[in-house]
Amino acid sequence: MMAILYTRLIHWKKQIISLLFWLLLPILATLAIVYGTSLIQQDSKIPVGIVTGDDSEIANALYESIRATQLIRVIDVTEAEARRLVESHELDSAFVIGEGYGQDVENGRRNRLITSYLSNLSFAYAPVSQMIISLVQQDTGHSKAAHTVINLSNHTTEQWTWDEIVAKTIEIQQEEDLLRTTFTFANTVGMENENTVSLWNTWGLWALFSILSTLLLFDWGVKEKRAEILPRFAFIRYTYQHYLLLNVCLYTLLFFIFDLIAVVVFHTFLSESISLSLIGAILAFRMLINMGAFIFTCLFQNVYLYYSTAFLLALITAVISGAIIPIDGVTNRFPWVALFNPVQPFLEMEFISPWHIVCFVIIAIWYVKGGKSNA
Amino acid sequence: MLKVTSLSKAYGKKKVLDHISFSVGPGEIIGLVGENGAGKSTLLNILATLQKPTSGSIHLQEKSYQKEKPSIRKSIGYVPQDIAIWEEFTVEENMIFFEKLAWKKRGIEALRQLCLDMALDKWKEPVKMLSGGMKRKLNLAISLIHDPTLLLLDEPTVGIDLKSRKEIGVYLRKLASSEEKMILYTSHDMDEIIHLCDRIICIGDDPFYKEILIDSGKEILTF
Ligand SMILES: Nc1ncnc2c1ncn2[C@@H]1O[C@H](COP(=O)(O)OP(=O)(O)O)[C@@H](O)[C@H]1O
Ligand SMILES: [Mg+2]
């Protein structure tokens, strides 16, 4: 093994720049994309003006809830500013929490609690207003329930038990279900947003770039079977198959060192957690794609054809992983697509997938057959 | 001692080698001549265990090619017709690369001496900067790393300058006489063949080569 390492080091020394480039690519590209998209997302939050004309507890709570929404960036304005900024399209839209909002909610008024300003370019008005309305309806719903309960206890001669009050409250809450649906709708807007974030899942991205860089760095498997050099490998103390497999092991080791670097880097900069099962899953994934890449190189004689097919393969994997086209549509229509995705088992932290077995069997057959033809 | 008995090789219906028999003793250099396509490379490849004969038997030091291929390989130094070296490596790196994989450990000084013995002194030079003669020398040197007893050289001097050609010739003579190696090699240079070889094997139907060689006073075998 040391002898093979020595010979491989001579090769690596010759291509040190491109070797390091491709080894670091999955780490750097993932960092860049995750950082990049989070910056863009900050920028792409919808600017919404909020005018607070009421200082009641309920009004403040509403204001904080709006502020906490992922989708929008709240800008505090006066009503006059709101009108001007919406008109100049600096704000998508603006909402006024009018004077007496708290009082009105407590009194059970349900109309015109909020005034809004919008322009013909207020693209996000519909979801934002839905979201705010649902927040308001939550407030009014609570208030209605409270009133009902208070009324019950005030105006009846019978003594209501605690259980009865609770039952009545639930009943009222169910009546308010409409509101809750609206609320859920607003919530899904937020969740979709979160989904796009998790689509650019750190390890998923890393896995895609790793597939590309692994395929490209395995070009040695194509380049080094040049016809002129091959007879030399009949006169070494390893069989050619053995020599190649040991090299695959060395590459796996090298890649895995950089995989561990990725674990540390993602932990440090992207707060990804570190766990033994993550490292196990990475190792399993690493062995899989290296076996796959090696089998792949065996199919090629021409290195340029190999490169283009490698890019194509990486692209296909990216597509069926949903990195480029949202995958839900594709996998819903063709569920078998997910089965063919080597990234899937890794992201689900499975150590052994059918792919492992297939690759292992192919390599075993190749090794035994090659050994026979060599002897 | 290499003993070839009634060796034949056909590619499909095409007979290339037809019942060839000869033997080579220690310290002997045998020349192999014939027109292009006569089957010289095929014969060398078979002797190098890289191809199988259709019929016939071969023994090296009493070992049968059929039964003891892996151990026979250790005694064979094969120099391919095409230059089989890493172009992007230096001479040193090429030598070390193949020494690491070889059956015998030589050490860096021995490797360097091996190159110097055939006047290959560009130790640190990348191969792609070398002249054709230097590349041929390196091609030969790598095949000698594991100290084989049977040397099979396929056109080792083709297309190179006269000086390199002479240096390789002198070196082969020295290997045969002082290290008792058996050497079989092909060439189209008749002067070189006559000058260097103890015996000459002519293969192919064309009588041309035999007629040229008949005056040389060397023993000639035709097949
Ligand atoms: N793998 C092969 N398949 C079929 N024919 C071959 C093969 N290798 C060589 N030949 C044929 O065998 C003949 C001898 O080739 P070769 O041994 O290379 O000749 P030489 O080295 O004397 O020029 C040629 O006619 C060549 O076309
Ligand atoms: Mg030839």
From TrEMBL, chain A:
It comes from the Bacteria. The chain crosses the membrane at residues 203-222, 243-270, 276-297, 304-327, 351-368. GO terms for cellular component: membrane. The keyword Transmembrane helix applies. Residues 16-349 form the ABC-2 type transporter transmembrane domain. This is ABC transporter permease. InterPro entries: ABC2_TM.
Automatic annotation (TrEMBL), chain B:
Coiled coil: none annotated. InterPro entries: AAA+_ATPase (IPR003593), ABC_transporter-like_ATP-bd (IPR003439), ABC_transporter-like_CS (IPR017871), ABC_transporter_ATP-binding (IPR050763), P-loop_NTPase (IPR027417). SUPFAM superfamilies: P-loop containing nucleoside triphosphate hydrolases (SSF52540). Keywords: ATP-binding, Nucleotide-binding, Transport. The keyword Magnesium does not apply. Belongs to the ABC transporter superfamily. This is ABC transporter ATP-binding protein.
